[in-house]
Predict the structure of FimB/Mfa2 family fimbrial subunit.
Amino acid sequence: MKNTVRNFLYVSLLMLLPLWTACDKDVHENESPGLAVGMEWLDGIEPTDITSPVNLWIYDADGHEVEAHEFSSPQELASGLFSLPEGDYTLVGVCGLTEPYRYDYENGTRTADMLRVSLADPSASPAHAVGGVAVASVTDTRINLRSVIRVAPLLAELAVRINGVPEGASLAVTVRNAATCLYPARRGDDNSYVVPSAEKTDALLPQAVADRGTLSTDARLMPTAQGEACTMLYLVMTFADGSRHEYTAEAPLMLAGKRYELALEYDRMQPYMYITATDINPWGEGWITSDDIFNPGI
């Protein structure tokens, strides 16, 4: 599967974005030596559409910002050279930070671990922004060096489908503990980049209306907040006669760049449900109710 994804990426970008992953040697042939930066998809990530602008931050070995740039396209980024003193650097690249995305430094501290990305509206469900981190070492300022940032979507995706519902029913789904922001250059417990904030907020999925007995809704949203034991879902189903049922579900954690699909049968739903992961793949998980469903009386 990884080879298939890579081949798709290279063929697509060869036609559309020829300078996305690397630099043409001729472009830099007559320039002063420096560091060239390109981008490619992280292994195992399914390619999505890429939007401008392209933001690049360069940090020194102590994590302090050295340079920050914005480019109109991946080609423009890849065609440039950055003159840096000898040393070790962290490169953070993100594409697509347009409305409703926000980015800034927490507490105004311009270090890699304080760079954060947020949404003006947690329920906005925008197109994906993609980003990644690379480490580069400049050991000789007299030669050209190349570094590649491998990128993946920053947001999570959640889809909810309920089968067998009465006609005229509608559904509202809220994630109770979505992160308020994420930190692209922080490392998590598994040593991977992109860490969500501990601060949490509600994120609402678009309201769904029954279509031939099925309710279906999905959204792109911040992953589950850091430190949470599970993803807390609150579902409200409203019926044609105005009555409603409320459900609370504990689901697995949502991670940045992954898609989660929750499939439920209406006649098996309970006021309180445990959700378990199935059909795990490189891009996400399928979710269903576990056998251990109970009603704690809330």
Observations:
- Confidence is low (pLDDT under 50) at residues 1-28, 292-298.
- The chain has two helices and 20 strands.
- The helical segments are 2-16, 74-78.
